[in-house]
Amino acid sequence: MKVATKDKFENIIESSDLVSRDLSWIKFNDRVFDQSKKEGRSILEKLKFLAITASNLDEFFMIRVGSLYNYLDYDKERVDYSGLREEPFKMKLLLECQDFHKKQQTHFVNNLLPEMKDSGFMLSNVKKLEPEEREYIKSYFIKAVYPMLTPMVFDGYRTFPILMNKLLIFGVVTLAPGDKKENRKLSFVQIPANIPRFFEIEREDLVIYVPIEEVIRENLVSLFRNVNIESVNLFRITRNGDFTLEESEDMDANFLEEVKRKLNERKTGRVVRIEIEEGYSKWMVSLLKERWNIQDDSIFKVEKSSMHDFTGLWQVVGNRRFKDKLPQVPHPVPPISYPQEGTDDVFQVLKGRDILLHHPYNNIDPILDLIEKAADDPNVMAIKMTIYRLAKDSRITKALLRAAEYGKHVSVLFEVKARFDEENNIREAKKLQKAGCFVIYGISNLKTHTKLLLIVKKDDNRVTRFVHLGTGNYNEDTARLYTDIGLLTTNETLANDVSEFFNVITGHSMPTTYQNLITAPRDMRNQLIEFIEQEAENSRNGLPSGIFIKVNSLEDSEIIYALYRASQSGVPVKLIIRGICCLRPGRVGLSENIEVLSIVGDFLEHSRIYHFHNNGETRTYAGSADMMVRSFDKRLESLFRVQDPVLEKQLMNILSFNLRDNVNAYRMLEDGSYVRKFPQADEDEFNVHKEFFDVKIEDVMKVKLI
């Protein structure tokens, strides 16, 4: 096969006005990986970020590389933003992934392993343990591990076994005594997912972590008696997990069954990556490559001194013995717009003013309290909400079940296509349905990503609608780790918009317009482009202008070219894009007036804020939507306008603080690479993930973006 060199496609890639979505994602994961190398972080923090990059890469191969193989395997045409066709792009992408994989391995072996012992733990194989510890492990293997293992031989009499996605697998090549080499056999031993990743041995001042594969390797001979073991090869496969639901006439009737069928297909999807330890059997790998139709660039070698699957490091990070070695997140502070949080009846407070929540700096409890009080309040008549992801032991599910038991009308759209949460969402939705809630299992050809809550309450013959609109999920666990925005309001205009939107979701309605809500898939792209073009027009007419946007991803080409045109008209454009960014900033004649920053640090930046100067008549929106094709065309999304002067200033201040950050910020260069932004000589450190715990109303009211 031809081997790609790193610069083979660079001229084509650099000549494009757009940056490849997938190559941009690799750069994002590299910024996360950078957190694992950051000075001042403890070893446990470094291991945590390494585990996150490994989990990210698993999902990337399952979805994005899997999607690419959907084109390659079925001879479908695809031209990437880089300008490369399917096969050349696959070569370039896998080359970048190989480089990233090598960086992970080198950092783990050279920097992280040596740092562990001083922090009270270490990784070890069985041979380095004390004799009594080895006996303890042998007993553990015999009693708890051996009964779980099933060797599966592949030969002329037995079919090739189904090897599971992301499990550690031993490929064992054996030969019967006296047989010729051509009669060797290949067997597979999968390590079940419900066995802990490490066996833990506690010494007085040290915790020893023995990888489960080393426990099994030491005792593998017990599974292959009276045959010669020619080689033992530890590997792990990643399968294509990308699926789309095909529309059909009976799709509504069979929607859940179709989702379940597709989930099962993930278990047997085509293999897109093999991670295998060095020194592997070439005969075995040749057989696997032919079986799974993959090439050498899909084979990722793991150093003998390293380990497979860095996601297993969560077991180390989560050990309660080391809890004090992880930085403690400060306690949430009361919202600026709700300083008496927890002391007053939130229903009464909302009748007098709106509340803006900024998580995790502000607690998610006001939202949870609102739902729980609504469930118990006899004057609440209805609760409607959309759910994309929930916590495992969700207070929201419990409250909705209680509301249904009390005879309230409860409508819930459970998005069962929320990637990797499908099974949990189906399970939770069925609970609610059995309790009498009106449950919609998503909409067949669209993914419902918008985050909306509507509570209808009657007091003294007057009906009040309490609304929550958010940028993040109703998940109390991730609300402690993700930065998100939430608006609680009784504003009648927004309440009307949200009521209309729920009618679209749950019934058959097509409202002509919303007043303070921008929705997808119908209007969002065009409305945002209209706002961008108005800024360009103002600039050409000598009026002040400016565009300030914070999202997770920017990929939609129509939006990108609108921003390019605004830049060429003299509009200052400041973009805070955590992840994928397909726009090239700072290109002469194209985007000189566009600056792109990415904030990657202790919290995952998840909020979306859109601010347009509009000659002083500012337009400021927040919501669930990124600037991606899928957000505009394939999802039910919403952006809500924030007009209250104080709350709008809060959103502007969030943008301002992000632009000032010099601890977590990376500046994007024209070629798609990123450089760290450091404090200048006359600057103090400004870390948004700390500053927002101390922000004051006085700071907020002074904010100016232009």
UniProtKB/TrEMBL annotation:
One Gene Ontology molecular-function label: metal ion binding
Domain Polyphosphate kinase C-terminal: 345-509, 517-683
Catalyzed reaction equations: [phosphate](n) + ATP = [phosphate](n+1) + ADP
A GO CC annotation given for this chain: polyphosphate kinase complex
List of residues binding Mg(2+): R389, R419
Residues at which ATP binds: N56, Y482, R578, H606
Swiss-Prot/TrEMBL keywords: ATP-binding, Kinase, Magnesium, Metal-binding, Nucleotide-binding, Phosphoprotein, Transferase
InterPro entries per record: PP_kinase, PP_kinase_C_1, PP_kinase_middle, PP_kinase_middle_dom_sf, PPK_C_dom2, PPK_N_dom, PPK_N_dom_sf
Cofactors that this protein relies on: Mg(2+)
Signal peptide start-end: none
Enzyme Commission number: 2.7.4.1
Leading EC class: transferase
PANTHER family in alphabetical order: POLYPHOSPHATE KINASE
Family under the similarity heading: Belongs to the polyphosphate kinase 1 (PPK1) family.
Protein name: Polyphosphate kinase
Organism: Indibacter alkaliphilus (strain CCUG 57479 / KCTC 22604 / LW1)
